[in-house]
């Protein structure tokens, strides 16, 4: 069963002559274990589509299914529980809480998902997974951009979500840090089997994906399978 399935999903903003269809009749399935990149020029609808997949926003038309269940029939409480428990988010600007340390930022994700017991240990155990041993007690301002994004990855993964959604996760990083972040995501995909979907318009990032979905003007222009990039270190 797909983790997530969209059937003819449209999201429009505004109305009348000012109406913009940010995505138009998108039909797409995300299967367990995929490592998929969404690419396309700025304004092509990548963020809008990821927000639909992550249930941060509802479709104007069409249907969305998470693990086979139609989201339209879920209450907002059910949807937030599902998001907190099953979906991890990574953002372009890291979105860490500045007054919390690295380990506290990670721990908070478990607490918000109602899983406070053992949260500190689980958060500490994530640090070596993302190459941040010894940096548990640094605040975001004491970490590089690449390190901050790896804290954000740990925060997304500590809940063991079925799906991780990352909107341009490397856009604010230089290429060395971008590579490291991508490497960590690929390794977690390989070792934990976590499904990733992320957006990027950086060709170096796109080269790492095993499925490349290209958006143009809010519609899918191409959906291609790729051989895994060399150098994966599970
Ligand atoms: P991308 O992430 O690929 O840059 P977006 O999903 O952000 O694309 O935007 C797709 C289109 O929808 C753009 O034309 C954008 O201007 C429009 N759009 C996005 N969000 C809003 C919004 N909240 N209100 C109005 N228009 C929006
Ligand atoms: Mg965007």
Walk me through this protein's architecture.
The chain is α/β, with parallel strands linked by helices and 234 residues long. Helix content is 32%, strand content 26%. A six-stranded mixed beta sheet has the order 6-7-8-3-9-10, with helices on both faces. A four-stranded antiparallel beta sheet has the order 2-1-4-5, with helices on one face. The protein is globular. It starts with a strand and ends in a 9-residue tail after the last strand. Adenosine-5'-diphosphate binds next to strand 2 and helix 1.
Question: What order do the helices and strands come in, and which of them pair?
Answer:
Layout: E1 4-13, E2 20-30, E3 35-39, H1 46-53, E4 61-66, E5 69-70, H2 76-86, E6 87-90, H3 102-112, H4 119-129, H5 145-157, E7 163-167, H6 175-192, E8 195-199, H7 203-206, E9 211-216, E10 219-225
Parallel strand pairs: 3-8, 3-9, 6-7, 7-8
Antiparallel strand pairs: 1-2, 1-4, 4-5, 9-10
Helix pairs in contact: 3-4, 3-5, 4-5, 5-6
Q: Biggest sheet, strands in spatial order? A: 6-7-8-3-9-10
Give me the Rg, rounded: 17 Å
Span between termini: 25 Å
* Tally of helical segments: 7
Average pLDDT value?
A: 93
How would you characterize the largest beta sheet? Answer: 6 strands, mixed
Helix content: 25-40%
Give me the secondary-structure category: alpha/beta
- Indicate the proportion of strand residues: 25-35%
Silhouette = globular
Query: Spans with pLDDT under 50 lasting ≥5 residues?
Result: none
Would you count the extended β strands for me?
10
Order of helices and strands: EEEHEEHEHHHEHEHEE
Bound molecules: adenosine-5'-diphosphate, magnesium ion
């Amino acid at each position: 069963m797909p983790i997530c399935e969209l059937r003819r999903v449209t999201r429009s903003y505004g109305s009348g002559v000012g109406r913009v269809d940010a995505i138009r009749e998108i039909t797409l399935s995300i299967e367990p274990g995929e490592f998929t990149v969404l690419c396309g020029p700025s304004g092509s609808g990548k963020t809008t589509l990821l927000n639909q997949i992550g249930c941060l926003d509802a479709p104007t038309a069409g249907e969305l299914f998470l693990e086979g269940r139609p989201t339209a029939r879920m209450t907002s409480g059910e949807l937030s529980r599902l998001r907190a428990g099953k979906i991890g988010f990574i953002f372009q600007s890291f979105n860490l809480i500045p007054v919390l340390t690295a380990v506290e930022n990670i721990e908070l994700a478990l607490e918000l998902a109602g899983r406070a017991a053992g949260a500190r240990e689980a958060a500490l155990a994530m640090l070596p997974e993302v190459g941040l041993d010894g940096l548990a007690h640094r605040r975001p301002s004491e970490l590089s951009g690449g390190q901050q994004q790896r804290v954000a990855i740990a925060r997304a993964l500590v809940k063991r979500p079925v799906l991780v959604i990352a909107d341009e996760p490397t856009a604010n990083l230089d290429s060395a840090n971008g590579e490291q972040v991508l490497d960590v995501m690929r390794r977690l995909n390989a070792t934990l089997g976590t499904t990733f979907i992320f957006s990027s318009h950086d060709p170096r990032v796109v080269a790492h994906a095993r499925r490349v979905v290209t958006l143009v003007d809010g519609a899918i222009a191409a959906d291609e399978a790729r051989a895994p990039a060399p150098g994966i270190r599970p």
